[in-house]
């Protein structure tokens, strides 16, 4: 059973007082020591004073106190100043339930702060992990957790923190051992961390020690020093591959919409041209039908009118115009035959 709080210090003091009182009692029973009334009164006052001082305990803001009375669970108490029965009747164990606790693997924080410093000295056996393709990777990770049930955390198991560390290390080695080294070093860190977190929480639930896993996060995953240069080349190649894929997607996103726009433009132009041609053809057909109707009413007049309209359309385009008689010999002298100023148009 792990002691988490400030209770045991006062309880040790109470225990010493009780031991002292028992020694005095034994000496009195043996006849070797006969205290006076005044001395007994002073001793009683001292004992009562220590009892009063031991009747209060303080719980910090982020803590929860577990209360045992005569060795049995009596309840919890929150932050603040509280009363308890002295002389070991009530025993208090404070647990940091309001904080997110952290365990580090493969490294240790030496100096936390703005410029946090770490060390890996002597932790090689903890960080070196065998992958599924029989390669070795240097894995550093952290496990963050909260104490959900302080009673279970303190009394369900003798060394809860060590248990969390052992199970976490087992889960990481299992997950890394089922993956190849390239995935562990590059693409599957987040997926592996999620898998480890789920497995770790499942096993801790089976142990029923009142712990909730907040997150499992890989701090750093690197190859061992003898092969680090080769793996760095692999990482550079992966990064170059991702860069080329990104560039190709960028060009795709730029060219494909442009081509689609041009295609839509051509389709709209083709539809417009088709509509124009159809309307023109319908107009020509309607015109022909109207002429046909007039022709059926007066064929000779319609034929002559069409002949004259055609001449009016064709003659202005000619440079020279000749009008012959029916025998093809004489030229009719009544018309201006050559195109001059004010004459036949070109």
Sum up the structure in keywords.
single chain, 346 residues, alpha+beta, Tetrahydropterin Synthase, Chain A, four-stranded antiparallel β-sheet, three-stranded antiparallel β-sheet, 9 helices, elongated, disordered C terminus
Q: Please count the helical segments.
A: 9
Number of structurally distinct domains: 4
The helix-strand sequence is HHEEEEEEEEHEEHHHHEHH
Broad CATH class of the largest domain: Alpha Beta
CATH superfamily (homologous) name of the largest domain? Band 7 domain
Helix fraction? 40-55%
The SS-based structural class is alpha+beta
| Radius of gyration computed on alpha carbons | 51 Å
Unreliably modeled segments = 341-346
The separation of the N and C termini measures 119 Å
What is the architecture of the largest domain at the second tier of CATH?
2-Layer Sandwich
Proportion of strand residues: 15-25%
The major beta sheet can be summarized as:
4 strands, antiparallel
Total beta strand runs: 11
Mean pLDDT: 81
Shape: elongated
Task: Find the CATH topology of the largest domain.
Answer: Tetrahydropterin Synthase, Chain A
Describe this structure in words.
The protein is α+β, with helices and mostly antiparallel strands. The chain folds into four domains: 7-95, no CATH class; 101-223, Band 7 domain (Tetrahydropterin Synthase, Chain A); 225-297; 312-346, no CATH class. Helix content is 52%, strand content 19%. The protein has nine helices and eleven strands. The chain has helices at residues 7-30, 37-53, 124-127, 150-155, 160-177, 181-187, 189-207, 228-297, 299-314, and strands at 56-59, 64-69, 72-77, 80-83, 90-95, 101-105, 108-111, 117-119, 128-130, 136-147, 211-222. The strands form four sheets. Strands 6, 9, 10 and 11 form a four-stranded antiparallel beta sheet that branches. It has a three-stranded antiparallel beta sheet with strand order 3-2-5. Strands 1-4 form a two-stranded antiparallel sheet. The protein is elongated and about 175 Å long. The model is unreliable at 341-346 (pLDDT under 50).
